[in-house]
What we know:
It is globular, with a radius of gyration of 20 Å. By secondary structure, it is mainly beta. It starts with a helix and ends in an 11-residue tail after the last strand. It has one helix and 15 strands, in the order H-E-E-E-E-E-E-E-E-E-E-E-E-E-E-E. The chain has one domain (2-28, 43-256).
Amino acid sequence: MKRFLVSVAVLLLVAVVPMWAANELDIVNPAEPYVSIPPDPDAPTWSGPEAVLYDNGPLVTHPGGGAGGADASALQTNLGMNTLGAGHQFLLGYSMADDFTVTDTGGWDVQTITFFAYQTGSTTASTITGVYVQIWNGAPNAGGSVIWGDLTTNRLASTAWANIYRVTDTTLTTTNRPVMADIATIGTTLAAGTYWLQWTTDGTLASGPWAPPITILGQTTTGNALQYTTAWAALTDTGTLTPQGMPFIIEGVVVPVELQSFDVE
């Protein structure tokens, strides 16, 4: 009986591990059929940023090169890359992190941050229901501390199709991975210095939400993002084993130096 129970436990472990592993990264499947999902004519489209303080990197590789003239973000399988997106599912406790630097002496009044995510199989009507954000004063895997936010408060102010499809370089016109622009309300002031964002996203579909990495034609290394699943780890493309960055856009205003407050002893 003991031997039988051990065997059952091993079989259950083998069955469970691939299921969890499949939620960590959206890997290219050569057998995936070509999919064409018509855009939802009633779904809003993101109008783009207005008061940009910082843009962490591009996502579009083929402007107007996707289905119906939409933009395409193409994974470069010709360079050996195979990771379409990284899992940052709120329900699983997964999240992403990436850094940015406040360069202005007076600091920044950060009003919103736009993140990008997709759920495979959605239409252009967004299925994203939550974005949870916190800001660290250093790398979360190297001694940093949370200075703003938490992973329990939903900061999502709006979500809409970014007019981008996440595709591969051999399937530019597939439409089953429409990328959403998810605007999170922040409302904090940051002094000059380097910070790390951590965020996790919720949605209504079974697939993802997935975070598409920074994508630049001809480049396999695009940044130094981290992914948290059961522990922090560098986000790498599993085909090329090269580090990846995450696109996000910070909006707000620069704080004039004369409006800074100082402690007087």
